[in-house]
Design goal:
By secondary structure, this protein is mostly beta strands. The chain contains four helices and 21 strands. The chain has helices at residues 15-20, 39-47, 242-248, 302-317; strands at 2-4, 24-27, 32-34, 52-54, 61-67, 83-88, 92-98, 106-112, 117-120, 139-143, 151-157, 166-171, 176-181, 196-199, 202-207, 211-215, 225-228, 249-254, 257-267, 273-282, 291-295.
């Protein structure tokens, strides 16, 4: 995911450090967990912080580095790996990890990349009658437009439903979990989440096979709406491999707009398959046509087409 880099407070004012630090990075969603004997863990403890960023200029990935005390549970399958489900403004990161052996339940931390600090979110109270679903890519993070410096962490409920009726959320202004009844919600196929994005004060639950569910989580009773994918992109039949979808499709915000990107195999004249790229931008989330086609494979310059085909040939040879 793209992430704007925050400067640690002790580095502010150091012109040389600022000049070398990238303004944004390609942040890996899988962090690095280091034990007490690792030099990086020692540097974190010496600085009195909870994390560090292993920064690199794009396209090299940047990694979040956290000490083992933030991820005490197993970090190997079948247990969920430590992960960054969402990134927000003001250099905030939502971090999740198992904390005990023998459980697949993850606990969540809200991290501040500016101060290199983190705070564990409390458990969801039993008297709410709901619980967080372990599918971490269904949890979103959004800045509160009415309370500067505050955020919410939210998930739709019940999980894997054909119609959601509740929003469960944690608010940093109250430091409590709560629920909201959805004023309206569309009926759809069982929802598999491929990430939650924050844009324009809204949360967008992405399913790259079905569409996008969107609502304003700060309303008393939010209206959940379904934004369909571009014409011809919805996949009606069950998708056997989520890995295939992750490699071929994604939805991301960029410069204030939401984009749907798909990589398709293009049959060339010699029978070889050359990957092509289609990019749509969202122009209206309320009315059709919702999307505008900004780029397709035929629009690429010849040298980029040749490069894409050579890359595909090399991959097939390997």
């Amino acid at each position: 995911m793209a992430f704007e880099v925050g400067e640690p407070s002790h580095a502010r004012g150091e012109a040389a450090a600022r000049q070398q630090r990238p303004s944004w990075v390609a942040l890996s969603t899988i962090p690095i967990v280091v034990g007490a004997n690792d030099e990086r863990a020692k540097k974190i403890d010496e600085a009195g912080t909870d994390l560090r960023l292993d920064l690199h200029h794009p396209p090299r990935p940047t990694h979040l580095v956290v000490p083992k005390r933030l991820a005490l549970g197993p970090s190997r399958p079948p247990h969920p790996l430590p992960a960054i489900p969402a990134a927000g403004p003001s250099a905030r990161l939502l971090f999740s990890a198992c904390q005990e052996e023998g459980t697949c339940d993850a606990e969540y931390f809200l991290l501040d990349a500016h101060t290199r600090s983190g705070a564990r979110l409390p458990a969801v109270p039993a008297d709410l009658g709901v619980r967080l679903h372990p599918q971490r890519r269904s949890v979103g993070l959004a800045a509160n437009p009415h309370r500067l410096g505050h955020f919410i962490v939210a998930q739709l409920n019940p999980p894997s439903a054909t119609r959601f009726d509740t929003l469960i959320y944690f608010c940093t202004a109250t430091m409590k979990w709560a629920t909201k009844a959805l004023a309206s919600s569309p009926t759809h196929e069982p929802w598999a989440s491929h990430g939650v994005l924050a844009l324009d004060g809204l949360l967008w639950w992405v399913n790259v096979a079905r569409g996008i569910l969107v609502c304003d989580p700060f309303l008393r009773n939010p209206h959940l709406r379904l934004v369909p994918l571009p014409d011809g992109c919805e996949i009606d039949e069950p998708v056997r491999s989520r890995t295939l979808l992750d490699k071929r499709r994604f939805v991301r915000p960029s410069e204030g707009k939401l984009y749907f990107v798909e990589v398709r195999g293009i049959a060339a004249a010699d029978g070889q398959e050359c990957p092509g790229v289609w990019i749509w931008s969202l122009v209206d989330s309320d009315r059709a046509p919702n999307w505008s086609l900004d780029l397709k494979e035929e629009d690429l310059p010849p040298e980029e087409k040749d490069g894409a085909k050579k890359g595909k040939d090399k991959q097939d040879a390997e």
